[in-house]
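S.,

Sequence below, as promised.
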Amino acid sequence: MFKVATWNVNSVRMRLPHILRWLKTHRPNILAIQETKVPDDKFPKDEIEAAGYHVIYSGQKSYNGVATISLKEATDVVYDLPGLKDPQRRVLGATIDGYRFLNLYVPNGTSIDSDKYQYKLEWLKKLCAHAKLQLQRFSKFVIVGDFNIAPADLDVYNPKAWEGQVLVSEPERAALQKILAVGLHDAYRLLDQTSGGYSWWDYRHAAFMRDMGLRLDLILLSDELSKHCKGCFVDKTPRGWDSPSDHAPVIAEFD
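The prediction came back faster than expected:
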């Protein structure tokens, strides 16, 4: 079984013991992590390689940052979306084990009336154009990451409480639907149409214990890969560990 996973770790240095523990237990073929929050010269490359993995990364101090950890070595690595020269480190694309793999940390947007919200929508437009071109080149194409969008009300613990806010607003959801419409499939929803599947819970208000979450971390698959997806699930276990990330890993399995 081929395993692909994504996990916003909210600081790779703080969460390194969790990452190594999780890799040892699950042995994914590819794990994408986001919000590494570390410049490249401080990334814990040696520790991850000692666990039997290759790793590529693109980071900055204190914010953002992405890394892709894999059993097979990555090639043809890219660090930006075409046409978007962005100092924020949010993108890492590579070919790994026959898969074209795009690891993303999508902008949060902050609030509907913020310039950062408009930046998010423009960023998603660039992603849509790039995804369309990648699908023309690669039959085994995967986009994973923290999208900072709950795709539908099914993915929100209390839709009314979130109505009109960033992460669930109609323009964000419409932008995500345009990305899916170029020929991608939400792996989790291929197999589960019920509410829940949350991957993020606020640190406040005992949100995790009360399962007050949102499904923000997605695995999007090309037509070819969607035919071979045998499961997609959220591993909530690490969210219950000491000093956890506020996100949990999402795993997809393929035959």
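The helical segments are 12-26, 45-50, 115-137, 159-162, 170-181, 187-191, 223-226.

Coffee later?
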